[in-house]
Structure formats: C-alpha cells, structure tokens
Amino acid sequence: MILADTHLLGSINGHWFDKLRREWQMHRAFQTTVALHRPKVFIFLGDLFDEGKWCTPGEFEDYVARFHDLFYVPEDSHVLIAVGNHDIGFHYSISPYLVSRFQWAFGVGAVKLLQIEGVTFVIINSMAMEGDDCFLCKPALGKIKSISKQLSCAAGNNDACEHWQSPELKQYSQPIILQHYPLFRDSDAVCNESDEAPEDVKYINFRERWECISKDSTELLLDELSPRLVFSGHTHHGCHIKHFNKGSTIHEYTISSFSWRNKNNPTFSMLTVSSNNYSIYKCHMPQEATVIVIYTVATFVLIACMVKKKLQSQSIIYTKVSRYID
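User: That's the sequence. What structure does it adopt?
Assistant: Structure tokens below.
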C-alpha cells in the first residue's frame, strides 16, 4: 500500500473539527484496506505531519503517537517511510536536531537501502538532494555512490565487489526509489490521471528544489541507481510520467494526498511487485463533497422522520381525546 501527504494536523494550523473528520477518514480508509487486502508492505511518501518542521518536542511525540494509532499495521508488516519537507522543513530551514528526531522516531536516514523478498528499495530524503555541501547533502551523495557500487556488485560486476559487497542485497534487482519530491519535470501538464491536478494548477511551471528535485539531482539518481520505478508525493495530485536514461524507460508515479484537507478526491495505490515485474492499481476514496451531501441528506431525512413521528403521535393523542369527550 502506497500513500502520501497525510499531513496530520498540529496545534497552530489545525482545528479540532478538522482533525475529527479528516483524520477519522484517513484512519477508516487505511484500516479498511488493511482488513481487506492485508498488504505486506506499507509505504508513506513523506509529509506525515503538517507542522513537524516547527512543532515542540512534546508536540512531536504526540504526532508520532497519533501516527502509529491512526495507521496501525500488523506486526509482521514492513513500514517504509520517506521524509517530507513538512516533517523536517525545506532545505534552507533544516537543522540537525529536526533531522535526528525524525530519524530517531522512524529509522530514516538521508539515504537508505533495503531489500524485501528480493525487491530492492532506495529511500531518499528529497531535501538532501539540494546539490550543495550541507551537513545533510554531502553524506547523502556519498551514500548514493556507495549504493551504486553495491548494486553493481550484486548485478555481477566483479570489479565492483572488492570493497562494495552489501549485506542488504541477497540478489540483484533494479531498485525502486521512494522519495517525497518528484523527479524533475516542467509541470503537471504531462499528467493524465483521474486524480491529476485541476486545470488552474496543472500548467504552472515547477520550481526546482521546491516542487521537484533539480534536473542535476534527477540525472544523478538515474545515472547512479538505474531504477526501474520511482514513487513520489509532495504535489498532492496524481501523475504517471516516463523518464529515459541509458536506453531504459523509468516509470515515475506521483501519489496524490491521502487527506481530504488537500484533495477532494484522495487516492492511494496498491502495488504488486517482484524482483523483475510489477503492477499498480489506483484506489479512490469517497470524495469529501459526496460524503457531505450524504450526511446532509441523511440529516434532513432523519429530521423529517422525527417530525412525522411527532405529528403522528400528536394526531393519535388528539383522536383519543376527541373520543373521550364524545
């Protein structure tokens, strides 16, 4: 199960009623999916929290507890989490403290390699793809180059194995990149999805390092990791785009926000994947407008039934009184 941008509300921009209806919606949709489909792996593509970038330590602990309560998963499941800009801040405002507390809570570094049943994942902190020598970006670049050597060794390149054998890789499979920001693209104009951006947003040009990672960082990731799939979030709207590198086609899926707060028609995706093949399905949740209409109609029907019952009771009483007088 893949979802993005849950944006659990905080104390500043959040309202109790907003939390009640929208976090309840996410909780019910998530737990229903767990019960019906029993996914083995749960992927969260960042922006778990809305105010993680400035909340106090106490509020952050409450955030983490609420996240685990709303998105409870079976103990034998895998949970993969990419960090988002609302979790630790945009590049210009990130501090070692904000990074370390999120990493401590969810076990997420700047770049992480893991393999589950022969499927290789590389989880990347998008804010570490700025391309400078900051405390986060420089180690991330070194880790990406190290993973590139490990993948090359696992693929059978013996020249790369002398120093780069990896205990995480039991066999080679082209990796799947998980990150919050999309790879570089000009805009969402190329997207053609049922949950794509609305027309007034779709053709607005993306700013590198704000709506997507830079073109240079995109080329770096594609060159070094040669992924077969990329999953991203951040824009709150769905998109499927193809990238081309070294004669290969890389499919990127941007997952729309899971929350009604960010999208009237939220979705999530179900991925079936093996070491060399995959299929993906987009799952639609009820539109917020539809649910509001249902609640409104149901309320009027309930009131009408109560009024009708009241009038019928009064009519029966009136009839009994009339008979008694007669």
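The mean pLDDT is 92.
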